[in-house]
Amino acid sequence: MSSRTSPISQSITIRRAVARDAKRLTRLVRGSGAYEGKYAAAVAGYRVGPDYIEAHRAFVAVGADEHGGRVLGFYSLVLAPPELDLLFVADEAQGRGIGRLLVAHMQSEARAAGLDRLKVVSHVPAEDFYHRVGAVRTGTAFANPPAVPWDRPEFEFRIPSE
């Protein structure tokens, strides 16, 4: 079974990101296979710095391994206005449910913060993922060259109270 389709075979912990995670998160963003080809410029100079981590509710999914934990993915939740700002899963860890775990965790954090919905401006190749995890398509964020030269789908997560 390939790593893209195998179930989670190790324990995964989701924890709050800390400043020392910044370089690993930046590498994860810049190295994402979803941003190859025409999308590469969007992340070429992207940086997830300690200042970003301090200012946002950023969480990492860490897999247990012989090195004491490896970052497999992360997300960042912005409370005002409510938005899922970033969500990345390492290429070699995709297809194993880590993105789904991060979304469930994000929804729990959003609920705890009193949010009933939040927006996501998706990267085009991630559109199917957001459909699968329950986000509802609400519109289109139009291109804003030179920063983003393509239209992007907008989604909304509705956060039910428990």
UniProtKB/TrEMBL annotation:
<dbReference type="Pfam" id="PF13673">
    <property type="entry name" value="Acetyltransf_10"/>
</dbReference>
<dbReference type="GO" id="GO:0016747">
    <property type="term" value="F:acyltransferase activity, transferring groups other than amino-acyl groups"/>
</dbReference>
<dbReference type="InterPro" id="IPR016181">
    <property type="entry name" value="Acyl_CoA_acyltransferase"/>
</dbReference>
<feature type="domain" description="N-acetyltransferase">
    <location>
        <begin position="12"/>
        <end position="162"/>
    </location>
</feature>
<protein>
    <submittedName>
        <fullName>N-acetyltransferase</fullName>
    </submittedName>
</protein>
<dbReference type="InterPro" id="IPR000182">
    <property type="entry name" value="GNAT_dom"/>
</dbReference>
<dbReference type="InterPro" id="IPR053144">
    <property type="entry name" value="Acetyltransferase_Butenolide"/>
</dbReference>
<keyword id="KW-0808">Transferase</keyword>
